[in-house]
Design brief:
By secondary structure, the protein is α+β, with helices and mostly antiparallel strands. The chain has a single domain (9-217), classed as 3-Layer(aba) Sandwich (L-fuculose-1-phosphate Aldolase), CATH 3.40.225.10. 40% of the residues lie in helices and 15% in strands. It has seven helices and eight strands; from the N terminus they run H-E-E-E-E-H-E-H-E-H-E-E-H-H-H. Strands 4-3-2-1-5-8-7-6 form an eight-stranded mixed beta sheet, with helices on both faces. Helix 2 (85-94) packs parallel to helix 4 and helix 3 (107-115) packs across helix 5 (175-198). Bound molecules: zinc ion. Zinc ion binds next to loops. Residues 17-193 form the Class II aldolase/adducin N-terminal domain. It comes from Halohasta litorea. GO terms for molecular function: lyase activity; metal ion binding.
Length: 223
Amino acid sequence: MTIPDSIDTDELTTKRQTIADTGRDMLDQGLTKGTGGNVSGRVGDEYAVISPSGMAYEEIGGADVPLVDFEAETLDGEFEPSAETPMHTMVYRQRDDVGGIVHNHSPYASTFASLGEPIGPSHYLIAFAGDQVPVAPYETYGTPELGKIAADTLGDEYNACLLENHGVLAVGDDIGSAFETALMVEYCARIHYQALSIGEPNLLPDDEIERLTESFAGYGQQH
Ligand SMILES: [Zn+2]
């Protein structure tokens, strides 16, 4: 296994460490438990680093994070990449604008995923994901079919989707913004759930969502 010459080794080292740190952030923020979920970051035009399979987030160091190509083949690293690597690489192939991906099974968002229902625009922060968080129809975890249906559901316009009976896929310009989007999805899912529990949520109109989406597009640079 060798690291391709086109890869900047400083960038690689930094992103490997960010993957390790973001895994712990997912635990700290209650987005995942145990070894569930996975995080990846684009490296150059054709490669990605992704959390290793089945390893406790507390124990993952930067050096443990595998480097893969967009065919989901491991190029460098001692450990197996996440079982969901085909889903991550499918999204990178389809979306040039995506630099980071977070997948988790956060409880409120996964509740909507199990209902097969999108998270509606009842809170303005939904605009981090789009005009809703749509649902990708069920496919078995780790399969190319799941990757394809998830990438198709994201299309060009969504930064997050639910995976039916499974969890959440969130994307962003970089690993940090994908993590931010995953947090917003779980927050909006919780508010939507609570609003539905005691009444009929007010839904934001499309033109307001558009305004918010434009406003949030520059959010990553400002904060
Ligand atoms: Zn999963």
